[in-house]
Amino acid sequence: MSTVNDEETAAASAVPAPPVTRRRLLGAAGAAGLLVGGGSGAAVAAAARTEPTALSSVGAGRIPFEGARQAGIVEPAQARAHLVAFDLAPAADRRAAAGLLRRWSDAAREMTGQGPGGQGRPTTPAAYDDQVADDAGPSSLTVTFGFGRSFFGRTGLTGRLPQALAPLPDFPADALDARRSDGDLWVQIGADDALVAFHALRVLQKAAQGTASVRWQMNGFNRTPGATERPMTVRNLMGQIDGTNNPKPTDADFDRKVFVPAGGGDSSPAWMADGSYAVVRRIRMLLDSWDHLSVARQEQVIGRRKSDGAPLSGGGATTPVNLAAITGDRSFAIAGDAHIRVAAAASNGGAAMLRRGFSYHDGIGTDGAPDAGLLFVAWQADPLRGFVPVQRKLDGSDGLSRFLRHEASGLFAVPGGAGPGEYVGQRLLEG
């Protein structure tokens, strides 16, 4: 239940944007204070907020839509996200689905600055323009498309259904809402500006009218770039630094774990080459129960220090976990049911996945507790070798599971990217 380590994957972003650091903001505030001759704090803050930095920092971040692999998988998770599943209309067939994917791909191409005549600046298809994102740069916008298992039956493509898209098993602790699970099509939208993300969502919804309708939508967030003095791994809503032990693009076996190889694989057809499989879970955190624990007890449940994310076996945040470490009283430094022990690849036959999630908060639930937690998105070359064995272990042995509730779930085949003039899924729909 972790997100990508921003420090370790920032290089994966195609066009990284220089961060607006806390130090830079403080410097702007100091300069504003000199200009106003020691004016009020409110005036200083207002002056700092009007510094013309948007398009030279957060707004300028641009991640190309086109490429061998879809964007939104290895890039650091953005500050805002919308995860949306669509169901095809009853009369929609394979040809209609192909038309929709072409409209979606063309729209994403334009909104990320790769459209015709865009000259690197984001534009909007005229038929869907609502001007919500006018004046904004691309803000690291990514739009990622995937297919649910039901899509193949709806479009007459059951013969091309990947074995890896087999239904996820029932986990005993799940409390899943079928209305917020699965779907024919899945879209992940991420951006570092809330209006840019919302605009992309509205454009895709408009482009789908008559062909597909929204089945469910979930909205997430992460820390905004520049909110910390230096790039740091994000904290989740439990206050834990979350994502330190993610696979890294520099690992020799990273591609093998995350992406389907060229030509397909044992459980994936050739049209899935350079694609990946996304497991999406809405995981509610039982925050009131969690907050009643002492910090020391929380650290034992996770297996890491809350202050800096260092494993209880010693070292710093990025120090590899030593599962064999023993304390002075001859007990394991990392408890037997600690989350990082149970989830570790070494505890699961080497099974691993790239986790790239978003926090969510949907107000107060009927039980009076925060309806908040994690929109978990895990990427792997084969979920039967990635997510499934790890979740089976977590479901029965993880001490953290007492403070979590899995409320929605989906599995989607996310094909490779689109080149110039192509659309995502073209190899499937026209092959």
TrEMBL record:
Give yes or no: UniProt keyword ATP-binding.
no
How many and how are cofactors bound here? Binds 1 heme b (iron(II)-protoporphyrin IX) group non-covalently per subunit.
Q: What cofactors does this protein use?
A: heme b
> Where is each Dyp-type peroxidase N-terminal domain found?
70-222
Protein localization: Cell envelope
PROSITE patterns given for it? DYP_PEROXIDASE, TAT
From the UniProt record, list the reaction(s) this protein catalyses. heme b + 2 H(+) = protoporphyrin IX + Fe(2+)
Alphabetic keyword roster:
Heme, Iron, Lyase, Metal-binding, Oxidoreductase, Peroxidase, Signal
Domain named Dyp-type peroxidase C-terminal: which ranges?
234-417
This enzyme's EC code(s): 1.11.1.-
Protein function: Involved in the recovery of exogenous heme iron. Extracts iron from heme while preserving the protoporphyrin ring intact.
> What family is it from?
Belongs to the DyP-type peroxidase family.
Q: What is this protein called?
A: Deferrochelatase
Which organism's genome codes for this protein?
A: Streptomyces polygonati
